[in-house]
Amino acid sequence: MAPVPMPLRNPGFLPRHAFQALFDALHRRGWRVLGPAVGERVVHFAELASAADLQSGLGDVQSPGRYRLGLSDGPRWFDWTVGPDGLKPLVFPPREVLWRAAPAADGRLHFTAEPPDAPRLAVLGARACDLAGLALLDRHFLGDVAFDPGYAARRAALFLIGVDCNRSGATCFCASTGDGPALADGYDLGLAELDDGFLAWPGTAAGEAVVADLPLTEASPTHLGAAAEATRGAAAAQRRALPSRRLASALYGAMHHDRWAAVAARCLGCGNCAMVCPTCFCHGHCTEDGAGAGEAIQVREWDTCFDPAHSRLHGASVRDGVAVRYRQWVTHKLAGWHAQFGRSGCVGCGRCVTWCPAAIDLTAEVAAIVGETGDD
């Protein structure tokens, strides 16, 4: 379940050379540690055995349609911004077997729910935007209407270690959505990285128990000032922004804007933006043959409103064409979500901009459609 918030930060200081103590405290409690690693030329979450597995000087360079790893001689482990995966796949797998059906001895079909795979995972390096995205997924999958037991089991097994962003990538715009770059809530343990170590503070009771096992010293005014200045600088460095946090009226009033057709001329309809988005939760179901004779399995897989079949009714797609599919994605996320969740579905992570093969910039398209102030 979602973490229960603790009081505001009162951090201690954890020297870099003592960081292994965090791994030890997590392992004693039965958590496997996932942290930043390089795989397939991106920063992603992978299992780490110890602090020695963390790579110093690891960074990234992002722009519309472009992602590159960057390395430096610095000591820091969290100088990257966000990779393509985030937290969503850990709680909402891209592919999941929901149940199995097989013939029983009496000739009837016997249905068995598939138990969810919910390992105890401590995620080291969760960013503020991804924690905000996870909070929205919680509201969908843990709500009274759409309670999902598999999601609930995986969510309850997570211990989230958030890290303040001390820099922003060129595609980041979390400051304009109110979701970063500093941690706000949703984490069990919070960290702010400095050259010589970390500020560390609990976010939940579970985090407080881990913090009690760390060799923390009193944080100096210099450390506190440096951490605050880093997040202020990261916010000030962002050059992209949404015109407003409330765009429902402006977007619904621009359903026939010429820009939808203009962006459709570039958009490939591939759905990359939805796949990397930390809040998109559309999915589809299909039945497949199982391993045993006569067995069938029901599979849930990620889906996207860019797929023509996603809106198929009575043999035809309701959203016929890329322009209306792109419009559906934008208006649902930035307008429709206000009615469902009381806020926008965008957390400003910038993944949709970076991972779009046509380099379509959501912030530029929205500004062109609603102007610079689109207010609800």
Descriptive notes:
The protein is globular and about 65 Å long. The protein is built from 13 helices and 16 strands. The strands form four sheets. Strands 3-2-8-9-10-11-1-12 form an eight-stranded mixed sheet. A four-stranded antiparallel sheet has the order 7-6-14-13, with no helix packed on it. A hairpin with a 2-residue loop joins strand 4 and strand 5. The protein is an alpha+beta fold. The chain has two domains: 205 residues, no CATH class; 104 residues.
Strand pairing plus helix content: what structural class?
alpha+beta
Number of helices: 13
Largest sheet: 8 strands, mixed
Instruction: Tell me what portion of residues adopts beta-strand conformation.
Output: 15-25%
The number of domains is 2
| Distance from first to last alpha carbon | 32 Å
Q: How many E-type strands?
A: 16
The averaged pLDDT comes out at 92
Q: Which geometry do the CA atoms define? A: globular
- Please state how the strands of the largest beta sheet are arranged side by side: 3-2-8-9-10-11-1-12
Gyration radius from CA atoms, angstroms = 22 Å
The run of helices and strands is: EHEEEEHEEEHHEHEEHEHHHHEEEEHHH
Spans of at least 5 consecutive residues whose pLDDT stays below 50 are none
Helix residue percentage:
25-40%
Give the key terms.
376 residues, alpha+beta, four-stranded antiparallel sheet, 16 strands
Give a concise summary:
By secondary structure, this protein is an alpha+beta fold. It contains 13 helices and 16 strands. It has helices at 20-28, 88-91, 128-141, 149-156, 174-177, 205-211, 221-236, 248-252, 259-264, 272-276, 322-341, 351-354, 362-370; strands spanning 12-15, 32-39, 42-47, 58-63, 66-71, 95-103, 109-113, 121-126, 158-163, 189-194, 197-202, 217-218, 283-289, 296-302, 312-313, 316-317.
